[in-house]
Design a protein that fits this description.
The protein is an alpha/beta fold and about 270 residues long. Helices cover about 55% and strands about 10% of the residues. The chain is built from 13 helices and five strands.
Length: about 270
């Protein structure tokens, strides 16, 4: 083969490669900026940092927008921290702790390894109903006793959920308002945290603070949008990591979050 023909063939291959690469990019195949993929990419070069294994047990309030993966990504962006988080979860839409206990998948995951933190999120309206609260108490007690019998060093955290949007039909149906749900939910989670000697992360007041700043955190009146999930992840990061620090400029490059909103969330969560 002559040099000219060989050179032409090389150029042809280069053009094909470039064409395929741009096609993949356009289809969202080559570059995937999801929190999970980005967290995995950031996982490279973490050998000098201490891993913190975190397990979430909950429902859609946890899994919307891959919140546990956002938490992992935020922790890995903080390159100055001695710690980073690897998150896992057992989450099903609408699940209560009772349903998790009956299904057994959560308990199997809990017993599958040594966790640093296990976080329990109840059904979002649980604290507004006397029977639901009793069920929550019964099954939280069962989980706590099971965890502490085999892994006493594992720290248990309660995930206190936010109130529904102020326009939710739930309030009219139940004769209450936004502030009643905010207050009662946080007070009941505090009571259970004290009763079972666990930690608790409150998201209701931070959601209200975001609302006062004009930041929408709701996707559909109940579930979080990306802003809401980012705020929740930031709150957990602050609670779990002692030297928590957030660089919103770097985070913006990792997934779709406005840098100014990220800065506001950081102020709400960290200060």
């Amino acid at each position: 083969m002559s040099f000219t023909k060989k050179y032409s063939k090389i150029i042809w291959f280069i053009r094909i490669f470039i064409l395929i690469s741009f096609t993949m990019v356009g289809a969202g195949i080559y570059f995937n900026f999801s929190p999970k993929v980005f967290a995995l990419e950031l996982g490279k070069g973490l050998s000098d940092r201490t891993k913190v294994d975190v397990l979430f047990i909950g429902n859609s309030f946890t899994y919307y927008n891959q919140m546990p993966d956002i938490l992992s990504a935020i922790s890995k962006f903080n390159v100055d921290s001695a710690y980073y988080i690897e998150s896992d979860s057992v989450v099903y839409g609408g699940f209560t702790l009772e349903k998790h206990w009956q299904k057994k998948t959560a308990l199997e995951k809990i017993n599958s390894k040594k966790w640093d933190y296990i976080i329990f999120q109840g059904q979002s309206s649980t604290m507004m109903n006397v029977y639901a609260k009793k069920s929550f108490e019964t099954h939280l007690k069962a989980y706590v006793e099971s965890i502490r019998s085999v892994s006493p060093d594992t720290r248990i955290i309660l995930f206190s959920t936010w109130p529904y949007h102020e326009n939710s039909a739930f309030y009219v149906k139940n004769g209450i308002d936004y502030f009643t749900m905010l207050k009662d939910t946080q007070e009941e989670y505090y009571r259970f945290a004290k009763q079972f000697n666990t930690g608790v992360v409150y998201t209701g007041t931070p959601f209200y603070e975001a609302k006062k700043r004009g930041i929408n955190t709701y996707h559909d009146g109940h579930h979080p949008n990306k802003n809401g999930s980012h705020l929740v992840a930031t709150l957990f990061y602050k609670h779990l990591i002692p030297d928590a620090k957030i660089n919103c400029g770097d985070i913006k490059a990792g997934y779709d979050i406005d840098e100014k909103i990220c800065d506001s969330m950081k102020e709400i969560a960290l200060y």
